[in-house]
């Protein structure tokens, strides 16, 4: 279901609240929003984790891509060690990041319609991600999006707090001197939606229809085509 259709089904009061206040700042998540990276990096992570297992139980890729989506890698590793009853060595995360960057370099693409959206926006925009800055920049560089975000990157690693903590979104709004009521966040994960909701920022949930229910349940207005961001602003 498209975003405009979702809004059309809201009660009239909520519909007006959703449409009457055009944004003065749009904050994009990176992985899964600007670029199709979550499936690539988390597939690498799950493969490497399963290679550590000697028993029969292993992580199902589809299930755990969704479970780990949008979360800090260190948190995912702690959970995986408990699930798999393994102890990862101190170099595992560095090895994973090296392998993930190699996979991204070979396979990463910008989200369809993303360049069109960025070229058409007439309001300020930025990216706020739970990833380290070097990964954000790497993903944007190899997909050709980095020129759009020079000087517009906010990383949770530089703040020391990760989504669902709202600090990265609050920092972006403060940097642009924009009230949170005048900002929009575009997220693909429940964790990211929770962070936006905690910051009292309207959040659009980007993803295929199969993920719309969980995004909506977290508080987002779900949509599947990035170009719909432009049509919503124009409303």
TrEMBL record:
Pfam families: Hydrolase. Its cofactor is Mg(2+). Keywords: Hydrolase, Magnesium, Metal-binding. It comes from the Bacteria. GO terms for molecular function: hydrolase activity; metal ion binding. Belongs to the HAD-like hydrolase superfamily. CbbY/CbbZ/Gph/YieH family. NCBIfam families: HAD-SF-IA-v3. This is Hydrolase. It comes from Pseudomonas aylmerensis.
